[in-house]
Amino acid sequence: MPERRRPQLNVHVQGWLLALPAVVLLAAFTHVPAVATVIDSFFSTPHGRRPAAFVGLDQYRTMMADPIFRLALKNNLLYALITVPVSIGLALAMALWVKGSIQGRTALRLAFFTPTILPMVAAANIWLFFYTPDYGLLNQVLRALGFSSVNWLGSPATALPALMALTIWKEAGFFMVFFLAALQQVSPVLYEAARMENASGWLVFRRITWPLVMPTTLFVAINALINAFRVVDQVIAMTGGGPNNATTLLLYYVFQVAFNFWDSAYAAALSTVLLLVLAIVAFLQFFLLDRKIHYR
Amino acid sequence: MLNRLGEFASTVIAWLFGLIWALPLLYAIWAAVHPSAFATRFDLLAPLTLQNFGRAWAAAPFARYFLNTALLVLGVMAAQFVICTLAAFGLARWKFFGSGVLFALILVQLMVTPDVLIMENYRTLQKLGLIDTLTGVGLPYVASAFGIFLLRQSFKSIPKELDDAARMEGASTLQTIRRVYLPLARPVYVAYGLVSVSYHWNNFLWPLIVTNSVETRPLTVGLQVFASVDQGIDWSVICAAALMTSAPLMIAFLLFQRAFIQSFLRAGIR
Predict the structure, then answer these.
(1) ω before A243 within 30° of 0 (cis)?
(2) Site from B5, B34, B96 to mutate, A interface, most A CB atoms within 10 angstroms
(3) The CATH classification of domain B61-267, taken from the options 3.30.70.100, 1.20.1510.10, 1.10.3720.10, 2.30.40.10
(4) 121-180 of B, contacting A, C-beta below 8 A
């Protein structure tokens, strides 16, 4: 009897032993800090010899009354609402272009995909020049066309859209790759049949292409959504959240409160909101996506 | 007729987008290889120069930043390979006590990435005395849910018979992993390696928070410090520096385009 049980026990012990390093690190840098963040958000920030005290929902009340938080949330929602569909639409268009028999498709694919490889900080510093007030590239073009120049990153109305444009430029090519793969899975027989029926290009797209790449669209949308709430590099590199917090996004605000104002409890409350947003996205993913499609 | 017109219009629009997409990089190259005076003036006869790269290189310790990034990227990748392989193997081959729950908990990290928990993780590093070290920059990413997930999937597709055969010859678990699983899963390691290297080469927020000296700063942070503090607004030098920091990855990408695109595809998420 003991002879038989030993290998079984072995599997349990060995399984945990193999997973142990990963479990310890994941717990230390993901699960424990996530729980700690939520707990900390119900306490006050310790100052000097005054320890943290339980304050209940005070941090959240402060947050509700904090105009910068409300602006950051609004900016971030707007950011997601615009960058996600635009990047997806462009990515699909790019994939359709590159997949077809267009002239110079290799060069096009290269042009579309290259921004993905660039570090965001490097891209942001290059784009800064486009947006420079007087002699920046965009303004040179505007003036050549007879318009007056715009202070793209300096005025609240254009600063956030300027950052969105950079994000779309950087992400669309990455998402294109997924659509390319999805399009290659579509059976050519379907397109043949459509041609026999003399269906218009738009009809083919709406009836064949769009429904068949739908799982990919959802997969990409979820990823784009997560990314939209983790945007921070370009804010640090280009605007520092300004002008007048017009480009302050959630993660940037967390960063600012935690590492410039050193208000750890308030930062914890803000992080909790971010965690909540991610939980909602996870929930969406669970119900919208059949994971098997992409993860096999 | 109408169809051909539509096709032509589509081609033109495609090329317009291609041009817009290529423009930032083309501009950066233009500014970097011409004297500063031509950074904002486009003259085909402008003299070429490599001085901007020299000036950037001399103005900030980029050599050190390169070394830091290389150490960080390779260190993280090596550690990820080891730790994720071990966990993935157990999860792929055995149904041990709590393995289902464990896997679900691991997947949480796909959503809650370390950059969302910057403050708590900073405190943890403080307690460990790892602030301003490369180990500290890499540590939160070493146990990667994504890596475990990817390797688990590929290990599962390896026939159990091969495993059994190795065991019959008396191989231990670790030996079996090394002799059977590692060689068969090689393409997945290549894909994961490429994704990991490009992610950490480009990572910015966490290293910005953790590092505060030349000895630990990776390229991205070094570039940002350089662009915002050391330089005024000399676009040529900033562009040269930006290109320099991206160059190794860009060159690798141009050489192995197909492998890169395949890897990103296989990997799904960065």
Answers:
(1) yes
(2) B96
(3) 1.10.3720.10
(4) 121-122, 124, 139-140, 142-143, 145, 148-149, 153, 173
Q: Which pTM value belongs to this model?
A: 0.89
Residues of chain B with CATH 1.10.3720.10: 61-267
Pair A126, B28: CB distance under 8 Å: yes
The pLDDT profile of chain B, 270 residues, written as one tens digit per residue, is 667 787 888 889 999 999 999 988 998 898 888 887 777 676 777 778 888 888 888 888 999 999 999 999 999 999 999 999 999 999 998 888 888 899 989 988 888 888 889 999 999 999 999 999 999 999 999 999 989 998 998 898 888 888 888 888 888 888 889 988 999 998 889 888 888 998 999 999 999 999 999 999 999 999 998 887 655 667 888 889 999 999 998 898 888 888 777 777 776 543
ipTM of the assembly? 0.87
Sole residue written with tokens 């904002």: B40
Question: What would the two tokens of residue B90 be?
Answer: 């157990």
Look at phi and psi of residue B172 and say left if phi exceeds 0, alpha if psi is from -120 to 50, else beta. beta
Question: What tokens does A51 get?
Answer: 């320890």
3-class SS of residue A16: helix
Distance CA B159, CA A40 (A): 48
For B:42-71, CB contacts with A below 8 A are none
Contact B190, B267 (CB under 8 A): no
Please answer whether residues A94 and A112 qualify as being in contact, where contact means their C-beta atoms are separated by less than 8 angstroms. Answer: yes
DSSP classification of residue B37: G
Q: Where are the beta strands (DSSP E) in chain B?
A: none
Output the CA angle A38-A40-A45, nearest 5 degrees: 150
Task: Catalogue the long-range contacts made by B145-148 (C-beta closer than 8 Å, 24 or more residues apart).
Answer: B145/A26, B145/B106, B145/B107, B145/B108, B145/B109, B145/B110, B146/B109, B146/B110, B146/B267, B146/B269, B147/B80, B147/B81, B147/B84, B147/B88, B147/B192, B147/B196, B148/A22, B148/B84, B148/B87, B148/B88, B148/B91, B148/B106
- Residue recorded with tokens 């730790």: B83
Give the best residue of A31, A118, A177 to mutate against chain B (max B CB count within 10 A).
A118
Residue with tokens 């104002």: A261
Domain A68-295: what homologous superfamily? MetI-like (1.10.3720.10)
> Could you tell me the two tokens for A23?
């479990």
Spatial contact of B71 and B133, defined as CB atoms under 8 Å apart:
no
**Cβ atoms of residues B91 and B103 within 8 Å:** yes
Of B94, B97, B202, the CB nearest to A120: B202
Where does residue A148 fall: left (phi above 0), alpha (psi -120 to 50 degrees), or beta otherwise?
Answer: beta
